[in-house]
Each structure stands twice: as structure tokens, then as C-alpha cells.
Amino acid sequence: MDAISALSPLTQSPGLPGSTSLGNLGLASARALGTASLLSANYEMMAMQSSMLQLLAQLMVGQSNQQLAQLAKGLASAGGSSPAGSSGGSTGSSGSSGATGASTGSSGASSTSASAQPKDQGEIDSFIQSAASAYGADPKVLKEIARRESNFKADAVNNWDSNAKKGTPSKGMFQFIEPTFKSMAPKAKAANPKAWEGLGELNWMDWRQQALVCAWAIANGQGSHWATYNAARSTAHA
Length: 238
Fold this sequence. Notes:
The protein is mostly helical.
């Protein structure tokens, strides 16, 4: 009986080593719940920090895009306000050293995208013919000047001759400097307003307006503004 009694679980003390009490189970559960809550809080904090970083990155990208847009707008404005034209160096106000540089034709002229380009040589030839007819100038001479000055490039610019060194580079298909174009264009337009219809405001980078002004100048005895004028006449009538 003593042996059976000793094996009976009813006689074992609940406090013996190896046994698990309800108190210990409750403490373990509380600790587990506390750890889970802490992990959950940490996760929420990390998620919040991630969201804040994403928002900050978006704000930075948006600001950068805005700055880039402003920079592009500034560059575009600077390009639009630059001296109209881009070419050799013929149409100086006196046709002196700048015109001498232009006599080399388009070989000394670089290109810039400041003005609209003609569609093709056919459009150039057609408009030069019309411009010459508008003022009674010789279309062959007008065309030869354009060939010698810029090789028919509407965006040619001379950055090396005396005009360029003075800050007024010759530009465009007929190599005008801005002051010369501005002094001649109003007179040319007033002499034949119909020829200027559809061309908008005066723009020295417009190759068509340059052709009209050059034709007017030739017809009015001012062809010597171009250093290539005499050579153009010789070639045109050879």
C-alpha cells in the first residue's frame, strides 16, 4: 500500500521540482504578450518612418523637377532674346572688317538652333526670287550672297570676326548684325508692306525677313554692306 500510495499523483505535492503551476503559466503568457506588443509597436514605427522617407523623397523630386523646369525656361528665354540670326559676318554697319570676315562665305560660320529652318533648297530659291521681285533686285545676286555668306544656313553664326569681337556677331542666312537689320528692316517693310504679310513682327533671325531686307538694300544701292556683294555680282553675271 505504501508503494502504491507513493506512485499516486494525488499524493504528489504541486510544488515539487519539474511541475508547472498555473502562476508560472500566467507569467509566461504575459511576457509573450508584452513581447508581441513591443514588436508590433516597433513595426508600426518603422512603417511610419518609411512613409515619412518616401514623402520626403517625393518632395525632393518635385522640388528638383520644378528647379529644372525653371532652369529650362530661363535658358529658353535667354536663347530667344539673343541677337537674331546666326552666320558669317558680312552685314556690318559699315561693311569693314566684319564684312571682310563674311567674304569667306559659310566656311567661317558655325550653326545654332536659334531660328526656324527652311524646308528645303526649293523653298529658299522660291522665296529669294519673291524677295528680289518685291524690290526690283537681281535674284541671282541675292541668291549668290546667301550662298557665300552662309551656304544657305538660316542658323549660321560668325563668332570670330570683328563684329563678333564687338559683341554683335553676324547671324542668319544673309549674315546680318542686329543693329544693321534693325536700321534697315523698318524701311524695307515700309517700302513694300505686302511682301511682309504673314511674317509677323520684325525678327532678324527670320531668314525670310533677312532676304527681304537684303533685296531692299541691294535695290537701294547699299549692297556694299556685304563684303561678298561684288563677288556675288561677278558670279551671277559670269
